[in-house]
Amino acid sequence: MNRSEIPLILASASPRRRDLLQAAGFRPQIRIPDVDETPLKGETARALVERLAVEKAKSVSSEEAVIIAGDTVVQRDGEILGKPSSPKEAVRMLESLSGRSHQILGGWCVRRGRQLCHGVEVCEVEFRTLESSEISEYVHSGEPMDKAGAYAIQGGAGRFVTAFKGYWSNAIGLPLIPVTFTAEHLFMDEII
Asked: How many structural domains does the chain have?
């Protein structure tokens, strides 16, 4: 089967998720979901990303297409680090990650009609100790502003990483192995 022949909708405005799916051979149609991404009171990072991925997938209508959605956060010591609202917040987030380990949690959901499969993948990441000047330079590049945890591992922040464990694509925005496997099987109407 040629993945480009699978009618696929990406319920996301993320260019990184689109690029990952295109690199995997899909031709996703983009539909931007209208979902409030505010964490619920007491909600864990794991529960948050899974709930949001499911809500995003359910917010898009299609009977025939496979719908893919995802959500990503960074977690450090139990604190959820989403997208920074200002450069000052981006600096604070990067300072809190400096010289420490943290997790990238990627919630994913694949839906076709009433069939729904979802899960969460976790990456373990360790940063070296960062100098104030390099944090400032990185934040001034603008790259951190639309990224969970205020960094793009595939971009300029890749030089901060000293250890990594998990799916690389998950760290970028979507765990391709479980997502593509599930999308192909739902399209072929196979029970997984």
From this structure: 1
Q: From residue 187, how far is each of 7, 58, 61, 65, 183 by CA, in Å?
A: 8, 17, 16, 8, 6
Write the CB contacts of 111 (distance below 8 Å, at least 6 apart in sequence): 57, 58, 66, 67, 69, 117, 186
CATH number at residue 131: 3.90.950.10
- Report the alpha-carbon distance of residue 103 to residue 124 in Å, rounded: 5
Of 19, 34, 36, 71, which residue is the catalytic one?
71
In a domain, 12, yes or no: yes
The separation between CA 72 and the C-alpha centre of its own chain, rounded to angstroms, equals: 3
Here the tokens at position 26 are 């899909």
Q: Is 71 a catalytic residue?
A: yes
Instruction: Quote the percentage of the chain above a pLDDT of 70.
Output: 98
Residue pLDDT, tens place only, 148-190: 999 999 999 999 999 999 999 999 999 999 999 999 999 988 6
Q: Measuring CA to CA, which residue among 175, 77, 165 is closest to residue 120?
A: 175
**11 domain residue, yes or no:** yes
The reply to whether the predicted model has a pTM over 0.70 is: yes
Among 49, 189, 31, 186, CA closest to 119: 49
- Whether 192 is covered by a domain: the verdict is no
Residue 114's domain comprises 3-187
